[in-house]
Amino acid sequence: MNKLSILLCGAALGAMATVAVTHPQLLLVGHARAADSDAYKQLNLFGDVFEHVRDDYVEKPDDSKLVAAALDGMLTSLDPHSNYMDAKSFQDMQEQTSGQFGGIGAEVSAENGVIKIVSPIDDSPAAKAGVLAGDSIIAVDGVSIQGMTLEQAVAKLRGPIHTPVTLKIQRPGKTDPFDVKLIRDIVKVASVNSRKLGDDIGYIRISQFTEQTFEGLKKSLDKLNKDIGKDKLKGYVIDLRDDPGGLLDQAIAVSGAFLGRGEVVTTRGRNPDDVQRFTASGTDLTGGKPLIVLVNGGSASASEIVAGALQDHRRATILGTRSFGKGSVQTIIPLQGDGALRLTTARYYTPSGRSIQAKGIEPEIVVTENVPADLKGEDETHGEAGLKGHLANPGDDKSEEGGSSAYVPADEKDDTQLQAAIKLLEGTQKSAYFPPDTKAAIPN
Question: Does 3 map to a domain?
Fold first, then answer.
């Protein structure tokens, strides 16, 4: 099942580590290949088909839409994360990665023609109106969106701020659909939220990796140190569950905040010499306090980079269920006409040389949540391995693993993963994996 994620009124961010740069040399690749006679023949074939459609289709087509569809079809045939963005989609993506955009404020997915809520954003119109993860949107303002593509459905949900919109929701466990009325607004995504757990544990939730994430993390650490006290603070729970990823540079900066020094991630492109090594070179902003990182089937890409780096360096204990398994990096290449190309340009590897592509991060301590009966089966992600056309794992054994549960209880008391982390940090529960064995860490 091909599952795509998108933030309403924003561009696709889910399961992505993105390098937002312009590479002029990449823009020249098409010209170099066009010199090959076979490539010219294929381009001529495309031209022939394009002209037949323009001249003979039963209705006059829109040339720009034809070209955009052809470009997107070419790119999506490569892997699930490469695609063409027109000017509007590119602008939406830029707004989203900045951490502020307009909309109702929810992440959704398209599964077999059904638009589902993955999660409402904290303090967004959707969250305030009571929209829940797992809800299906079957109509917008009385117009059915069943069978629409994700982009078509999002277009229906978009609109000027302060305008009303009515969603018809089908909720698991309820027989009849019901209406939810809300007001569109500017959605400011606080990608980092923090609070005290009890009197002596810091909790930091990173929901996605935007341009503001590292700064938000530093502010959260400062606040927790002030509220709890450095001497009293026993450690931190870093919650990366259902974090779909985001910007690569932010994942590197966040990893460095806990590592201080050492390799974070290596990216390897198609050519043997196309290798980049990213390292942390600052200081551990936590002062070496114990860390437990929570992951689940919704933790993808940039969040997996952080979890993998902390795991390999034995800086943190990973707890939860297997992560999504998104082990590739996309480069955003601006194009003429204000559009952009999102192209998978590299695989990434954890500091120990592991590729987690279509495998995911395996926690040292596996803890599952108690999923309500009406949500069982709905909580499972199929992971990268379940996406049609995904890149194969480059390892010798080529083994792959599917995703895992992405369910997180709303009530902290019912959150078995979080409660297990608290008990480990408090010392009321023991594990051979906590604290981690630093002797097994890879050398810095």
Answer: no
